[in-house]
Amino acid sequence: MKITAHEIELLVPNAAVAKNGRDLAAKNKLFNLKMSEDGSLIWGECSGSGASPYFCSVDYIDESKPVFRCNCPSRQFPCKHSTGLLYAFEKQLPFAVAEIPEEIAGKRAKIQKRTDSKEQESSGTKEKAGVQAEKPQNTKSIIKKADTQLSGIEIAKKLLNNIVQMGLSGIDATVRRTLDERIRELGNYHIEGIQLAFTNLLVELSYVENDEYTNVIDQLNYISALLKKSGEYFAAKKQNPEADPELSSSIEEQTGYVWKLAGLKKYGMYEENAEIIQLSYNTYDNTARKAFIDEGYWFNLKTGRIYRSKNYRPYKALRYIKEENSCFEVLQIPELFIYPGDVNPRVRWESMKLRLATDADRVRVIDGASSDYAEVVKTAKSTIKNPLMEKNPVVLLKLNRAYPAGEHIVLEDAQGNRLTLTDLPAQQIHTETILKSILPGRCEDAALAAMINNDLKTGIFSVTALSLIIPGKIIRLLY
Questions:
Q1: Which residue has the higher pLDDT, 120 or 3?
Q2: 472 Cα distance to chain centroid
Q3: Cα(397)–Cα(477) distance, rounded to whole angstroms?
Q4: Residue 474: half-sphere exposure toward Cβ, Cα within 13 Å
Q5: Residue 96, SS3?
């Protein structure tokens, strides 16, 4: 078993745990270090603040999902003691070969029993496995829930009409408090996504300066379209409760439904033995959700599709939810689950293995880039036109020619179609400025991962650079 410092960083919940773990290993706080004969388990003791040391272990019986155990009171997994154990192993401190402790052997047996049970459930056809894994809903409960959702949508429509009628400029602090109370009531109708959309509206209102309501109006249009679409959707579900959910759009998730992996598998929304490579990674604060969101964009080396991953970290649980990080390796995923949606659908996985990215992988990304900018613009505009679809889709552009034009860089394809590079208004890192020091010298055999930006204030259609892909490396511009 080989453990690298980068792999440890991917496993720990945050930078503080990583630092504390490194310090424990560096200060020789870990002792009585042992490992199993096959190298799948390491364990030891760690000096703590109390009189008795903590007993910690890291179990790699399933290499894709290591299990961390420690008798300390921390609710973080791994805790700093287990992390220190990993760093001690990574630094090649002496670990004596020993028999697996009886307590851990017993826990391993229980895990194996659960694994065997899951495998038995998954035997037979894939469709059968999905049905077995997800408990079927009662038809009457589906109709009752749809009735409740439709009632909530009617309340939400009245709320939207009231906001429009009173006028955006007339919404002062007192009115906002009233609106906030009414928005909280929507949480009683199983339409949490609609509730969140109204909360986002209040957030956008709080950002308004100099009577610039462009983003607020955009959010109003989104809510209006969402209420119309969801009303039609739940009415149809009430009439035919046994019908499959809509898989060509994300309306279920937009209204608040939380997809389970078993449900995605039931409807064939997954891919076996997928390999994906990260194009870009960013973390941002979503004040409406009261959470930080770790967002990654990935290229599927087999299908050429661009996916998006999201990791939600609520403010109240920051200490206990692992912060994602940039990934420079290729992820090998036994089952890649794909959420319903059209552009850059969200993906998720339960387990994965890492392998080093090669020049051939990066060439595959470049080959998957579009060399027809006119087609990219056409597809993006049809997407942006729909209020319920992604406003800033991510695309891959094959580079042909790049040159400065005033303050910006212009990209031009072989047919002479042009796209202008700009930074997103709220973006703190100016990727165009970074790219100016690289282009136009690296246009040949290169691609650009870029986010479409349709500026509602100016009407300018442009792209924002996320990363530059060349055969030797992927150069991250947004990080």
A1: 3
A2: 26
A3: 15
A4: 32
A5: strand
- Residues ≥6 apart with Cβ < 8 Å to 446: 366, 399, 468, 469, 470
What span, in angstroms and rounded, lies between the C-alpha atoms of 393 and 464?
A: 11
Instruction: Show the tokens assigned to 87.
Output: 């760093």
Q: How far is CA 164 from CA 157, 208, 285, in A?
A: 11, 16, 28
In this prediction, residues 158-182 reach a mean pLDDT of 90
CA gap 298, 330 in Å, rounded:
10
- Nearest to 61, CA basis, from 29, 109, 28: 109
Question: pLDDT tens digits for 358-385?
Answer: 999 999 999 999 999 999 999 998 888 8
Answer yes or no: are the C-beta atoms of 281 and 305 closer than 8 Å.
no
For residue 430, name the pLDDT band (cuts at 50, 70, 90). confident
Cα dist from 239 to 138, 140, 234, whole Å: 14, 11, 9
What six digits make up the tokens of 208? Answer: 């308004």
Distance between CA atoms of residues 105 and 90, nearest Å: 24
- Of all residues in the chain, what percent carry a pLDDT higher than 90? 57
Tens-digit pLDDT profile for residues 124-135? 434 444 434 455
Q: How many CB atoms lie within 10 A of CB 237?
A: 20
Pairing of strands 96-97, 30-35: parallel
Tokens of 354: 């890492």
CATH architecture for segment(s) 269-357? Beta Barrel (2.40)
How do strand 67-70 and strand 54-59 relate by DSSP bridges?
Answer: antiparallel
Q: Where are the alpha helices (DSSP H) in 344-446?
A: 359-367, 373-385, 431-436
Q: What is the pLDDT of residue 132?
A: 44
Question: How far apart, in whole angstroms, are the C-alpha atoms of residue 158 and residue 182?
Answer: 11
Whether the Cβ atoms of residue 274 and residue 302 lie closer than 8 Å to each other: yes
- CATH number for the domain whose boundaries are 367-476: 2.40.50
Whole-Å CA distances, 125 to 120, 121, 129, 183, 262: 12, 10, 6, 44, 14
Q: What is the dihedral of CA 223, 229, 232, 236, to 10 degrees?
A: -130
pTM of the model: 0.79
Q: Report the C-alpha gap between 310 and 246 in whole angstroms.
A: 21
